[in-house]
């Protein structure tokens, strides 16, 4: 029909648009996109789709996220997120935000899983969702296009099982036989409270009172208070008695300073932990190493139930606790 916009056609009683290859994501990936039966309906549908095609590119959102949001994250999170953002910008950055639909994201994840791993693809999905969350907040898009629509890879897809190392009591005792006094005090505090490594190493003397131990959680910005039980009091006193020199910190380094540096890293402490673990493998019956994070998982595993484990580990969701921190095998009671 004469007078129609470029690349329009009328057939089978309806108006169609033949999008260029670079436009097809905005038109559901179709070579012929049905606009509507009436000319007015077709014009409105075409205008809506072209608005999507002309919307902000993902790369501009990534740039804004990098400037405004990334500085608020921890150093380790920034390092991890930066790699994902670089991949997303390189592969999908030229796409308008409006065409970041589930099938586009699935195609991207399959490509990353093939070239990297499923775990890397899952991390990229997590970061993309965060960026799109802020796109909604900033008014760039009205609704999140992939949240709840795109599923991460799971074990059934072939994803390598998450770490499930559980530390038996005898293994802990074997390691303690070669560990330093400060390392044993550190482990005792974590096994009683379930706090994270860096939060434990940041504890200061003014966080300790006769009644309670206060711990500042760097990840969430919250403060936790633990009742000063007899066992916790003994662990704190052990930490105090083995300080290499007077310090405001409960578990200081040899200079009396915090083991956690300005970037949130603990290389010196981690190096000494690795040395002790190596010695334990050589001099004791310990056959498999365990990490400081495994100590936290032991707390979750040894708790009497999921809710108690969630409380100790300060998780917002019990599903996270159950999936990653309840590692101890439990016998199932038969019917009779």
What does the model show?
The chain folds into 3 domains: 8-53, no CATH class; 58-157, Tyrosine recombinase, N-terminal domain (DNA polymerase, domain 1, Orthogonal Bundle), CATH 1.10.150.130; 169-324, hpI Integrase, Chain A. The chain is 47% helix and 7% strand. It is built from 13 helices and 5 strands. A 3-stranded antiparallel beta sheet has the order 1-2-3. The chain has a two-stranded antiparallel sheet with strand order 4-5. Strand 1 (8-11) and strand 2 (14-17) form a beta hairpin. The radius of gyration is 27 Å and the shape is elongated. The mean pLDDT is 88.
Summarize the entry for a quick read:
Helices cover 47% and strands 7% of the residues.
Secondary structure layout:
Blueprint: E1 8-11, E2 14-17, E3 33-36, H1 39-53, H2 58-68, H3 75-92, H4 102-115, H5 118-137, H6 169-176, H7 181-193, H8 197-201, E4 212-216, E5 223-227, H9 230-241, H10 267-283, H11 292-302, H12 306-313, H13 318-324
Antiparallel strand pairs: 1-2, 2-3, 4-5
Which descriptors apply to this entry?
single chain, 336 residues, mainly alpha, DNA polymerase, domain 1, hpI Integrase, Chain A, two-stranded antiparallel sheet
């Amino acid at each position: 029909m004469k007078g129609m916009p470029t690349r329009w056609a009328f057939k089978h009683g309806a108006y169609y648009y033949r999008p260029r290859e670079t436009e097809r994501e905005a038109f559901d990936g179709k070579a012929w996109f049905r606009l509507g039966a009436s000319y007015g309906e077709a014009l409105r549908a075409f205008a809506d789709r072209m608005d999507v095609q002309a919307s902000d590119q993902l790369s501009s959102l990534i740039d804004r996220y990098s400037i405004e949001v990334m500085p608020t994250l921890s150093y380790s999170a920034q390092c991890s997120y930066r790699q994902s953002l670089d991949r997303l910008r390189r592969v999908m950055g030229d796409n308008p935000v409006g065409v970041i639909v589930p099938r586009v994201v699935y195609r991207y994840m399959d490509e990353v899983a093939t070239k990297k791993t499923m775990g890397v693809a899952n991390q990229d999905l997590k970061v993309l969702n965060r960026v799109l969350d802020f796109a909604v907040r900033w008014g760039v898009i009205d609704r999140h296009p992939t949240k709840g629509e795109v599923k991460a890879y799971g074990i059934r897809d072939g994803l390598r099982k998450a770490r499930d190392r559980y530390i038996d009591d005898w293994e802990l005792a074997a390691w303690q036989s070669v560990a330093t006094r400060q390392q044993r005090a550190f482990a005792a505090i974590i096994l009683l409270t379930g706090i994270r490594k860096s939060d434990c190493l940041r504890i200061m003397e003014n966080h300790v009172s006769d009644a309670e131990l206060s711990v500042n959680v760097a990840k969430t910005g919250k403060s936790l208070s633990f009742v000063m039980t007899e066992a916790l009091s003994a662990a704190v006193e052990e930490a105090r008695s083995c300080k290499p020199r007077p310090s405001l910190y409960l578990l200081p380094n040899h200079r009396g300073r915090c083991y956690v540096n300005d970037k949130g890293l603990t290389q010196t402490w981690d190096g000494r932990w690795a040395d002790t673990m190596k010695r334990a493998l050589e001099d004791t019956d310990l056959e498999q190493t365990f990490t400081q994070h495994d100590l936290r998982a032991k707390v979750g595993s040894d708790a009497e139930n999921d809710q108690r484990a969630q409380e100790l580990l300060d998780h917002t969701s019990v599903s996270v606790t159950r999936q990653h921190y309840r590692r101890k095998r439990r016998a199932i009671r038969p019917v009779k």
